[in-house]
Amino acid sequence: MSETKEILINSYPRVEGCDFQASWVDEIRINKSAVDRRISSLGGRRTVKKQWQAAWLLKAISCIDLTTLSGDDTPGRVKRLCAKARNPVRPDILEALGFENMKLTTGAVCVYHEMVETAVAALKGSGIPVAAVSTGFPAGLAPLETRLAEIRASVAAGAEEIDIVISRRYVLTGDWRTLYDEVRAYREACGEAHMKSILATGQLGSITKVAKASMVCMMAGADFIKTSTGMEGVNATLPVSLVMIRMIREFYAKTGQKVGYKPAGGISTAKLALQYLMLIKEELGDEWLSPHMFRFGASSLLGDIERQLEHFVTGRYSAANRHSMG
């Protein structure tokens, strides 16, 4: 399973993007009321229980970018996180579920550049890629050459995925061509590494600007579009996710290129994770329900999912501290 996952992630076609198309951006209009109505119906129409819920939660685990982005990160903490990524669910729970031979892992481990080499070494042979946040994360206000150098350094250190942050000022001022050029430069600096473009949606002012920024980043060659750094006042939400997913669908219709999606920040419960998976299934289809097309940016989510799986097996809820990251 781990070998298959490595092939899926590392050889999946890159998004090439396209030339900047101003008309594609100008024509975007978002009906906020319609978005809210669509999301309000999600929980009532779709639910899964018992063994089906357990199966969906195992799928969610395979799509988690297990993340640590703290100022007090240490090599020891990163190694423990990587050990959890290799074995995200306790063996006794997997055995009770009949999945002891599944070799389940998370989708990736996400760290700062300084911890890339530590994570790469800890994950060697697992098929789990290391994702590095870059370009002056989380604000993205370092000089451009510094941001580009940071990308190249992380790729050289072994990161297979780069999570870049866009300059929000270009969105707020409607300078779409400059945003395109910036993201295109990031794309070139990534080389063979996959690039996730973080929009910081909570700072973009309106849901229409979120949609336009999504389209520009995909035109520039983003392999994924991602909601947030996890450090804004408002991070991933279901309404914003619907808008970004619809832009992915529109970009696919225009170009035939499939872009992945990553909600990040604030997704900490299994119940909420299931809603995101249902939204992806309904809006984009089963092909997007895989680690090479969908990721959760999360740190605490895994613990709650493991707790829910134990409840399914035993009928009892355990304390959260029994499902720690390391």
CATH topology name, in short, is: TIM Barrel
Which radius of gyration do the C-alpha atoms yield?
Answer: 19 Å
The CATH architecture classification is Alpha-Beta Barrel
User: Strand arrangement, largest sheet?
Assistant: 7-6-5-4-3-2-1-8
Shape: globular
Which structural class should the secondary elements be placed in? alpha/beta
Number of domains: 1
Q: Biggest sheet, in brief?
A: 8 strands, parallel
* Share of helix, binned: 40-55%
Q: Report the CATH superfamily.
A: Aldolase class I
Along the chain, the helix and strand elements come as HHHHHEHHEHEHEHHEHEHEHEH
Query: In percent terms, what proportion of residues is strand?
Result: 5-15%
Number of strands: 8
Determine the N-to-C terminus distance. 23 Å
Indicate the CATH class.
Alpha Beta
Short summary of the structure?
With 326 residues, the protein is an alpha/beta fold. It has 15 helices and eight strands.
